[in-house]
Every structure is written in C-alpha cells, then in structure tokens.
Amino acid sequence: xxxxxxxxxxxxxxxxxxxxxxxxxxxxxxxxxxxxxxxxxxxxxxxxxxxxxxxxxxxxxxxxxxxxxxxxxxxxxxxxxxxxxxxxxxxxxxxxxxxxxxxxxxxxxxxxxxxxxxxxxxxxxxxxxxxxxxxxxxxxxxxxxxxxxxxxxxxxxxxxxxxxxxxxxxxxxxxxxxxxxxxxxxxxxxxxxxxxxxxxxxxxxxxxxxxxxxxxxxxxxxxxxxxxxxxxxxxxxxxxxxxxxxxxxxxxxxxxxxxxxxxxxxxxxxxxxxxxxxxxxxxxxxxxxxx
Amino acid sequence: xxxxxxxxxxxxxxxxxxxxxxxxxxxxxxxxxxxxxxxxxxxxxxxxxxxxxxxxxxxxxxxxxxxxxxxxxxxxxxxxxxxxxxxxxxxxxxxxxxxxxxxxxxxxxxxxxxxxxxxxxxxxxxxxxxxxxxxxxxxxxxxxxxxxxxxxxxxxxxxxxxxxxxxxxxxxxxxxxxxxxxxxxxxxxxxxxxxxxxxxxxxxxxxxxxxxxxxxxxxxxxxxxxxxxxxxxxxxxxxxxxxxxxxxxxxxxxxxxxxxxxxxxxxxxxxxxxxxxxxxxxxxxxxxxxxxxxxxxxxxxxxxxxxxxxxxxxxxxxxxxxxxxxxxxxxxxxxxxxxxxxxxxxxxxxxxxxxxxxxxxxxxxxxxxxxxxxxxxxxxxxxxxxxxxxxxxxxxxxxxxxxxxxxxxxxxxxxxxxxxxxxxxxxxxxxxxx
Lengths: 291, 434
What we know:
heterodimer; A: mainly alpha; 12 helices; about 65% helix; disordered N terminus; B: alpha/beta; Rossmann fold; Coagulation Factor XIII, Chain A, domain 1; 6-stranded mixed sheet
C-alpha cells in the first residue's frame, strides 16, 4: 500500500494491494499523520491520572517509594556500595530514567490491544500507537527529574551527609543523549512486544516479569563496578545499563564516563529499534484481522 | 479516465477460519501444533489422506474477485445480507485491512466512517473528544476549529461541552459522535451502517445531513441494511452475495433483485433452518409474505384492493404474552404505520409453544403508489424482550392501474403523499350563488 501524488492532477492516489514479505517503514506516512500522533500522546497524558486522588503526584511517588525500599534493603541491610554517594540519591538518579523506561515498555506493549477498537475501525500508520505510548511518559519523567534536582539541591544546602556535596559540571549536557537512549530502547522493546501482543496475549503476562528481570540486570540497586571487568562490555549489551550509569555520571560525577560500554549500549538499542520497527511493519497487516 | 474516483480490480480477501474462531493463540498452542505437525502429517499419510491437508486451516474468501469503478461525484449503495462482505470491502478500501489479492486505486482524499465515536474517551470532555475524534477521522486541527461550533450545535450538547463524556447519556454521546463524523469533509467518503443510531428525530436529521453530503458532488460509498435509505440516497447500488458482486446498477433494480433473492419474489421469504432463523430463545421467525386477494404471494398490489401480510413463526418457550407486529416503510424511509396484533383470541394470553401464522389485512385505498418495505417484528410483553426484528423482510409495489376508480380519479400525473385514501366526495352546484 502506498500513497503518492500524481504529477498532473495533484490528486493523491492511494494504491491498495497485498504486500509481500518485508515492507518499508513508510515514515513519510507517519509524518502525514503527525497530528493524530500528537493527539494520542496528549490523550494518554491527559487521561493517565484522571479519577485519582493524588493525580500527577504518582509520577513522583512511585520512584520515591522504590528508592525508599531499595535504600532500606540494599543500602542499609546489604550495605551495597554506591560509588561513595549517599545511597538514596545515587539510587534515585537511576530510578528516574528507569521508571520512564518501564512505563514506556508497559504502555507501548499494550498500546495495540488497548486501542484494538480503533485499529479495527480506522486507518492510520499503526506505528504511531506504540511510539506515542512510549513517549507519553515524558511528562512523568520531567516531574521525577525535578525531584531529583531538588534532592541534589537539598544534599548540597542542608548537608544531610557530612562532607558530601555534588558539583554540577558540563557533563549534564550529555543528559539529553541518555534520555534519547532510554526512549530508543523502550520504543524498540515496545515495538517488538506490542506486535507480538496482538497475536500472543502471553506478552501481557511476560512484561512484568521481563521488567523485573531487567531491573536486576541493570545497575540500579548496585554499582556496575561490582561486575568483573571483562564482563562489562557484555553487560553493556543492556542499553539501560548505559543510560543509568550515564545519568549518574552526568549528575553525580560518578566514575562511569561514557566509554566502550556506552557505545555497545547505543548500538544495541538502535538494533532493537530498527528490528522492532521492521518486525512491527511486517506484522502490521494482520493487526486488524487478529487483534 | 480522469473522472474515476475508485477503481477496484479483482480484490479478494481470504480469512483462515481457525484464526477467526480462536481469537488469539497462546505460545503453547502454537508450540504444540508445531510439534504435532509432523505426527499429524504421518497419520494423514497412513490414513491415505493427502499430505498436509489437515495442516491447512479451513479458509473462507470473504471477498472474491470484486471489480467495479466509481466515478467522482457518484453515490453508491453497497447492499447484501449479513456476512456478504460489505464491511470487509469497506475495510479494504479504507486500508484498515489488506486484501489477499487484487488491486484498488483511489483518487482523492479518503475519509471512512465505519463507526461513529471511535476513540471517544469517557474521561475527556465533549470538547476534547471532538478534537480527538476529529483527528482520528483524519480532520486537520484547523478544520475542526472552524467546524467546532457547528458540530456542537448539530449535536445539541452546548451546555455539556465541557463535561466529561462519561456523564453523558448514551443518546448525547451518539449525537456528538455523529456530529463530528457529519462534518468530515473528504473527497471520497466510505460509510458503514451508521444511521442506525440515536432516536428517530436525530436519525431523520442525520439522513438529511447524509443527503446534503450526497448532493455535494462528493463520492460516497454507503453500506446499509436499510433498503429505503439506499434507494433514497444512492442512484446506484452494488449487491454483494458471499463475497462477490452479483448486481451493479440502478439502485431500484438492484434493491429489487436483492429482495427477490431466495424465493424469486420480494413478497415472500422463509427461513427453513430453525437455528439460523431470526429470533431469540422464545420465538423465531420462519416466514413472511404479502398476499393479494387471490391468497398468493405477490409483489404488485393493486392500490384499490385489500391485501394481507402474514408472518409465520415458532414459539419455542411457552408461557409468554407475545406481540407480533409489522412496520410499513416507504422508499423514502418514512415509517407509514405500525400494525400490532390485535386478535382477541390471543391478546393478553400466554401462548403455548408451536407454529403460528399471524395475518393482518390492510385495506385497499390506503397506501400511496410506490415501493413499500415491511419490517417484521416480535416482542414479548411483561417483560418486553425483543425476539426478532427483520427490517425489509418483504417488499411490494403499490400500483394504480389507472382505471378511474382509484383515489386519483381521472388524473394521471404524479401524486405525492404518504397515503392515498379514497374519500367520499360531494359537490353541490349553486348556479346563482348561495
């Protein structure tokens, strides 16, 4: 299927025919539907905390509570090292991008199934559903990020821990890159899962487990310095490891500057995104019939 | 060639029945069937069946070799019984689902309306939903902006436009949804049965709006079960049967051939299979007919003489008070009247199970000339439960043979009007004034 404009008449001509095998991504069509794309994101953001008492505060409460739990069990009880930074702060700096990532994966994995009615009744490039769902968590991310800045600020001004303060450096300029990496990763995973979810509802049950496993495969509760040196690059295959360590380096000056591990992370996440997008496009023609 | 809006050539759509019935599979099923496939093939070979036959799920062609062209500005009705493939064809043309074979070319911006209110979110306000739904239907933000007031006025929900839609009554929700859809402004419009919503007055309004649309020089393909609105809105109709085009032409003729399919007349229909006959657990419709004075089914009724409509039905569960009734609808979709069963023998009485035939005699000199569709319906009273409602079950023409003894007298021109009663006239002459 494709759209083109015939040069003589300027009337758009849509050709409808069966597609075979691997199909192109047709990003131009996604661009044509950008307005709908914005609307989907807007709707998701608008609806997320409707009919809740605490509203958008949840965007802050969830990572904060996680931080409290981790600090108690891993920081206090297990005495896990935290790169010489107070464990709660060090942990929260990782939880903020992590929360964004898991929200994105969850929302986009379910995006096709929850919008099945629309898929059966309306034409639009299906890619915009999981993409919008993955991006709609960005507002939550910024709220939680503000809290993170506040936390850093409090550590600096109120000297909560004797002799500890964080110095802001130009490393923060790297943050948009790490955020982008988190977006690409969650979208890549989301694309794979959402397309599979249409056919196999098992995905819905797999996602929580997958996310939990992934949490422990990412240096959130523990530093990546605990991983033996030769394994670090393999460890970098998990793009979220790069993201999380990147956030800590940029904000808290930990000793985890961008290096080979980040390069591996970036490549993995790009591979995830591209393969996810092509797989999605290949499965797309069955969506309306199967969902 | 430049005038062509939609060209459809050899479009086919195949479904795997297995995939249709089992809505979704689990990994386990896929795995076991993958593991079991060689075993099954070996078993088939041993049984002497062709190898792999059982591997193929049963397939059905929902559409097969569909070809037609629609010119710019044409309004085409797409009709056929349930499961004939109308909606599938519309989905293929709207690009919601891919065809299995064939090709279609659409010249112009397409808008499709398979359902009103797709994507409405109960937590959002009316205003927000108008924008969301408009975007979903493919309207630009600026288009929605400029049509917004009109949409709200059309839907008659001005007061509640900033209230979340979940607090709306279902009628209000439908009105708002339709109002957005009605302001859709593409060159080519594909519409599925959407007029069956809302109360009668709003339906009327929607039909009028649809008529504006069809007179606006736009290309429209319109799927409907309502034969009266097809003949009224669409000069041309295409009839689908089992996924194939069986008739394409003037809508009057196509509608007539649709109504005839089966018994060869539009005046009688029967349902030989109890299980597929329309109806609920209490009563099922088995036959409907229109009979002239001779007692034979006929689709041409002389305007002067009485005729009977009859329905045959099975009562499956005894002990209910039933109300069989007929609706008479003219070709403009106007409901002429409803006739409820008043037979004193059964009125207010609980009925034992078994076969019934209920007849009503319609007097002569009542209906105007033209096509009349009969809708057959049955409900139980106390509690009221609809058992069947078969729109356009049968149809007939009321004809005037112009012999001078009908209500038209000696006048042979067009005579508008919904009814044509024969009145008692008396004219007195006063040569010198009164």
